[in-house]
Design a protein that fits this description.
The structure is a homodimer of 346-residue chains. Chain A is α/β, with parallel strands linked by helices. Chain A has a six-stranded parallel β-sheet with strand order 2-1-3-4-5-11, with helices on both faces. The first copy, chain A, has three domains: 56 residues, Orthogonal Bundle (434 Repressor (Amino-terminal Domain)); 137 residues, 3-Layer(aba) Sandwich (Rossmann fold); 132 residues, Rossmann fold (3-Layer(aba) Sandwich). The interface between A and B is large, with 45 and 45 residues. The first copy, chain A, binds a DNA duplex (30 and 30 nucleotides) through helix 2 and helix 4.
DNA sequence: TTCTTTCGTGAACACGTGTTTACAAAACAT
DNA sequence: ATGTTTTGTAAACACGTGTTCACGAAAGAA
């Protein structure tokens, strides 16, 4: 392990200046004249010298590293989405000369697991952390914010919570569902049901709120038996329809699914019961999953720009790191209806 | 930014011992008696103290961080595979208390791009790096190994290259293709063609070697016009078949594709020309892509265990980091034939 | 020319930790 | 009771860098 033997002292000796001057050259101090600067730079380039990061950080500089924490509650989300989220964060960070430390949280209720996360922050491995897939108001995240760490959260919204160092980016789930209801009403639907997602996550309650508001706005009654629980998974969509059919109640003419996976599950169950889509039942999803344009029929859904979201969040995080004064942001991003073949005018 | 105000000196004062003793407690020195240890640990826990990583590294400890470099030559590989590779590395590293810094290399021929990679190594941000998607004998990787950095490479094989600090894990592409030929010969095929992958990558030449060897072993002639170039992408499989059909030469009765994507492209082109699979043409792929069991017909292919590969590679990398003596490994992993519906006895 | 200001740079200190050295106190052996 | 080993801990140094402070040299002003 003979590497890393070159340091700023050696560079200083070779260039015939003091170590301070080397440091000034590296950090672009204007006081050093061009002749000296070039003399030092020549040696630096020749010896492939890069300042040691640990020493720089110890001396007060930033790590230039962002932690990316992906919370995966049981369900393995090995789909293309998390890949895109990750790529977007990495590329955006990279463009600002920042690095990304990726970490997977298998179970955010396991003390051992969250201790590992706290360790990363307290050890000073990262300047800030981004959490993906967190429940609303996850205690250990609140604790980190309370300790003064900079935290970015995706798809979460805590009304009234605008503390320093909390950067929140969310999609406008509420307005999305309202738009979905508007669209279905425009197709003459009056009996509209919903399969929601996990109510502990932000998107669940938000979508519920939107549904209630929109139905009330159109003067339509709310049938409790058509508001089905789910957890954002395909299986839960399947189970919701199964339960609904087996309960024997009249079916709605349209269903809003919390996301495309749920919609796929529901479509499978509906197919098995001989309910034709969109002839007998219109269905609308969320997220514009890659498979949505391959399903049978092609799924009408809402397109959400994950790349835009993560890029914006990452830039805001970097701003928070570099600004001394405390920084907080709460951005809501609209989604866009993509009309395909799963809804029909009645 | 009031955090991180707690350090080992404070802990020492609060526990009524010297800073050295605190350090000894943290690093599990046997010389400190249980009473003292407990006294110190109590304060450490109470104040949520974690040693500062930068200071530890500066004092000689390891970063406990592995760089994961994903080389993406133009083609965006946003598929499930890279996600699994990443997850496997992170989980394995995490189990040994190591962290992963993920970096995307958009173009490994761009000097700016490779300078960014070198910077990560030379700054001491990582103890070792893993490269995914590298060409054989990529110059900047060789340079890093030459500098004494620990490097892990996936799916590469440089005969005779067993230098220290080079950890190579590859699938046995050569034997895989030989097995494929054996299987097809067992189905009475004699006219066997191949659509290969990028010859600059390891898997390309290895598969070609295997093909030549196996055909010769069975005493079958090598038809040069049936050995088609490709680059591991769906499009290249499509183009290969298009070219073959348009050239007017007699078609083989079976084709070995470099991977499943290539096979899918080939199947699409064959379908467009009215060639039925497997009736008129048998086809066999590699990698057991998630879509392979959904294609029409379901694709016979070779299953490769990426998780096993990355996990093994990561563990070996950690061994190299922690062992003082130089370490090198070159592991070849077999693949397993998965028979589905795309090959037929003639 | 002499005094003042600007410019350039070296010396010294700080950051937080691991480790080596040295030394006192306790335990043991005679 | 005295000499010897063991045990536990404190003080000092090292790691590589950024930054402050002070000071000499050069440039400008009177």
């Amino acid at each position: 392990m003979k590497k890393q033997e070159i340091n700023s002292t050696k560079i200083a000796q070779l260039a015939g200046v003091s170590r301070s001057t080397v440091s000034r050259v590296i950090n672009n101090y204007p006081s050093v004249p061009p002749s000296t600067r070039e003399k030092v730079m020549k040696v630096i380039r020749e010896y492939n010298y890069f300042p040691n990061m640990s020493a720089q950080v110890l001396a007060g500089k930033k790590m230039r590293t962002i932690g990316l924490f992906m919370i995966e509650k049981g369900h393995v989300s090995s789909d293309a989405t998390s890949n895109m989220l990750l790529a977007s964060v990495i590329e955006t960070a990279s463009s600002k000369d920042y690095y990304v430390l990726t970490h997977i949280i298998r179970d955010s209720r396991d003390p051992e697991s969250i201790n590992g996360v706290k360790e990363i922050f307290y050890q000073g491995r990262i300047d800030a952390g981004i959490f993906i897939g967190a429940d609303n108001h996850e205690p250990f995240i609140e604790e980190l914010i309370g300790e003064g760490f900079i935290v970015g959260i995706v798809d979460q919204h805590l009304p009234g919570r605008h503390e320093a160092n909390r950067i929140v980016y969310s999609f406008d789930n509420e307005k999305g569902v309202m738009q979905a209801v508007d669209y279905l009403v425009g197709l003459n639907h009056k009996n509209i049901g919903m399969i929601n997602g996990d109510m502990k996550r932000f998107a669940g309650p938000a979508k519920y709120e939107g549904f209630v508001k929109a139905m009330s706005h159109h003067g339509l009654p709310l049938h409790e038996e058509w508001i089905l629980p789910g957890d954002f998974n395909r299986r839960s969509g399947y189970a919701a329809i199964q339960g609904l059919v087996q309960s024997g109640v009249k079916l709605p003419t349209a269903i809003i699914a919390a996301n495309d996976s749920v919609a796929f599950g529901a479509m499978k169950a509906l197919g098995e019961h001989g309910v034709a889509i969109p002839e007998d039942m219109s269905i609308i999803g969320f997220d514009d999953h890659v498979l949505s344009s391959y399903s049978q029929p092609k799924l009408t859904t809402f397109k959400v720009d994950f790349g835009y979201m993560m890029s914006g969040l990452t830039l805001e995080i970097i701003k928070a790191i570099e600004n001394h004064h405390d920084h907080h942001v709460n951005v809501t991003i609209p989604m866009e209806l993509v009309v395909r073949d799963s809804c029909k005018k009645i």
